[in-house]
Amino acid sequence: MTVYALGNFVPEIADSAYIHPQASVIGNVKIGERVFVAPHASIRGDRGRIEIDDESNVQDGVIIHSDDVFVTRVGKRVNIGHNATIHSESIGDYAGIGIGAVLMVGSKVAEGVLIANSAMLHPKTKTEPYKIYAGVPAKYLRDFEKDEPARIALNRYLDWYVENTFRYRSLSVVQS
Ligand SMILES: CC(C)(COP(=O)(O)OP(=O)(O)OC[C@H]1O[C@@H](n2cnc3c(N)ncnc32)[C@H](O)[C@@H]1OP(=O)(O)O)[C@@H](O)C(=O)NCCC(=O)NCCS
Known about the structure:
Number of helices: 1
Order of helices and strands: EEEEEEEEEEEEEEEEEEEH
Largest sheet: 11 strands, parallel
CATH architecture: 3 Solenoid
CATH topology: UDP N-Acetylglucosamine Acyltransferase, domain 1
Bound molecules: coenzyme A
Shape: globular
Structural class: mainly beta
Distance between the termini: 16 Å
CATH superfamily: Hexapeptide repeat proteins
């Protein structure tokens, strides 16, 4: 597991979380219960603190980098899609971050918001709970309904990654 202390900062990782060996977690980072961190994700708490709450997932190629003027908080049951870049201050509970989205320094994502695939969220953009923001720069697209296909899919991803925190414990190298 590539988890690195940096000076006095030692990542705090719940026993039930799973960090893939090819992911990297550095420094002032706290990772909650049943969080899944996929290969090639980088969670780098070298400027400030990063906290990821229970049952969230950080998919392949995601970058989360800290800042020295705020704590980067990722809520519970947040799905962070492949290759997203997270430099935000906060991501509320039950939010979804689409594939390749960029959350710029200091941006804030409200509870249950969906940031669309490839969107770029500017810190001046105020997000409101349970709405979808899309585009570059990201703008309000529409409400994020409870029973719509995108939300049902999001919940499926979340459950699947929680399951993977158990399943991946039997991961083994067959060739290298
Ligand atoms: C935002 C999202 C939910 C829209 O899905 P949808 O409702 O099926 O969207 P539609 O295909 O009906 O498109 C609705 C409109 O939004 C636009 N749109 C859809 N996705 C967009 C995106 N990512 N960026 C910009 N515009 C987008 C469409 O072009 C369309 O515009 P129009 O009305 O002018 O034709 C979907 O594109 C998305 O980003 N989902 C995120 C998925 C996710 O969580 N990924 C991580 C998986 S691990």
